[in-house]
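Translate structure to sequence.
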């Protein structure tokens, strides 16, 4: 079973028809969207000129049978704490939301589809 977590930029690329994202989702049995990704998307929607349309597209995406929203659990928090400590020791800071998104990908055992290179500094993350 192939599980994919989408980072914010991967979801945005999906909406524009990016072939890499479309191919990845075509292979996936489960697609995860972190609540932190959804928060970043809402932020973008409210700052754009197509908020209503973007919300409709997201809501339709979230209704798909294979798409699941990942909420934060105690396990997520434990992973987050470990990641942040390890990255601080290595001197490799990563934005807070990205640490939460990485924690969700690790928690679900999914491949993270992202176009953001800072996830490469987190060895536990399986990048697509």
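Result:
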């Amino acid at each position: 079973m192939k599980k994919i977590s989408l980072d914010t930029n991967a979801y945005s690329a999906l909406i524009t028809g990016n072939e890499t994202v479309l191919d990845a989702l075509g292979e996936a049995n489960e697609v995860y969207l972190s609540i932190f990704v959804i928060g970043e998307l809402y932020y973008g929607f409210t700052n754009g000129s197509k908020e209503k349309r973007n919300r409709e597209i997201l809501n339709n995406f979230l209704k798909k049978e294979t798409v699941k929203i990942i909420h934060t659990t105690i396990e997520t928090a434990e992973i987050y704490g470990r990641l942040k400590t390890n990255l601080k020791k290595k001197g490799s800071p990563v934005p807070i939301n990205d640490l939460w998104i990485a924690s969700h990908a690790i928690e679900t055992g999914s491949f993270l589809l992202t176009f953001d290179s800072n996830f490469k500094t987190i060895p536990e993350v399986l990048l697509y």
